[in-house]
Design a protein that fits this description.
- With 199 residues, the protein is of the alpha+beta class.
- It contains 7 helices and 4 strands, in the order αααααββββαα.
- Strands 1, 2, 3 and 4 form a 4-stranded antiparallel β-sheet that branches.
């Protein structure tokens, strides 16, 4: 990756710097640079190899970044949304949808059996083992495409009733999960305040 793209990426990542502690932000920068340069599987270890720190810094600290570090993905999404709202020439358009993912592994949290909306038909319902994520996106025009792109800013994992009973949690219906995702925006004012009239 050449210097100009790296500088552009760094300027974008600095927008969410207030969410992290200093050590966490350093790990976040390393992982981000590694993911951008990774081809194929975008695992943590692959990102460290691409970033050139594999064997120099232990991978456990970067895995703990996701499981134990003090930062909130909701705060990251809110900051991104605020900056996008400030740049938007008009009203900010949002989209809320659920998407099915099929992660693999014996210890992946929250897996369940879900209806596959892509492969199912009106007559046949096909089931898939995986995750269903409820995602709130900002709809953005991009110069290299005629279609509007959706930038994810907030996420919630929908858990099946069987998974909730297994882990002792409360099962929330899809509509409640969607409402909870959109409710994370309540503290945010997306429109700039009107300037006061001069006296």
């Amino acid at each position: 990756m050449t210097a100009p793209p790296i500088n552009t990426l760094l300027s974008l990542l600095l927008l969410i710097r207030p969410v992290f502690t200093r050590p966490s932000f350093c790990r976040f920068l390393t992982l981000s640079a590694g993911w951008v340069g990774t081809r194929g599987l975008h695992a943590v270890t692959e990102a460290l190899v691409s970033a050139g720190v594999s064997g120099v810094r232990h991978h456990a600290g970067f895995h703990r970044f996701f499981s134990r570090a003090r930062w909130s993905i909701d705060q990251v999404g809110r900051l991104l949304l605020l900056h996008l709202a400030a740049l938007a020439p008009g009203p900010v358009r949002l989209a809320l949808d659920d998407t099915l993912c099929t992660p693999k592994g014996p210890k992946v949290f929250g897996l369940g059996v879900h209806v596959d909306p892509v492969r199912s038909t009106r007559r046949t319902r096909l089931l898939t083992f995986g995750h269903v994520w409820v995602v709130l996106c900002v709809l953005l025009p991009v110069p290299f495409s005629e279609r509007v792109w959706a930038l994810p800013v907030l996420f919630r994992l929908y858990r099946t009733q069987a998974d909730g009973q297994k882990r002792g949690g409360t099962h929330l219906k899809m509509a409640k999960v969607e409402f909870d995702t959109s409710s994370a925006l309540r503290p945010i004012t997306l429109t700039a305040p009107r300037p006061r009239a001069a006296r």
